[in-house]
Amino acid sequence: MDFSLEQLHELVTVLNKTDITELTLESGDLRLSIRKSETKVTSTLPTPIALSTVAQANVIDSTSINPVTYASTIADSLPAKKLIEITSPMVGTFYRSPSPDDAAFIEIGDTVKKGNTVCIIEAMKLMNEIESEASGKIVEILVENTQPVEYGQVLMRIEAT
Predict the structure, then answer these.
(1) Domain range for residue 31?
(2) Is 112 inside a domain boundary?
(3) How far apart are CA 2 and CA 50, in angstroms?
(4) Which of 39, 91, 109, 121 is most buried, by the most CB atoms less than 10 A from its CB?
């Protein structure tokens, strides 16, 4: 199984658009592992490999491919509790604060009440305030400030109280 640089780039691009956090492909003595992390997409390849030197260098140094970044995941370490997902009701740009100079609406660990504004989604030059769907504690923020979001994409999770 040989991968071209273009195929690897396309694979990483497709993965960045999904909620999949880890993918491993194996064929013969080739093992390709791609994992989304807080700062970059990492890939590991064993020796010997079937890729060209140029493709190998680009897979290992994948910071040149637009990595998806995620906030720290607190929810994974919590006991099974009721988590409410706040999703994007539209395609647009995610903003954590009302303006660049203002503080974020919420931070991980903050307590919110149902109806509190938790972020803004800009769509077609209109700023749409997104409100909390439940009262509880913010345990996870999955989107970086100014990042584009898709309809239905999970923005954050709340531990319901």
Answers:
(1) 5-64
(2) yes
(3) 6
(4) 121
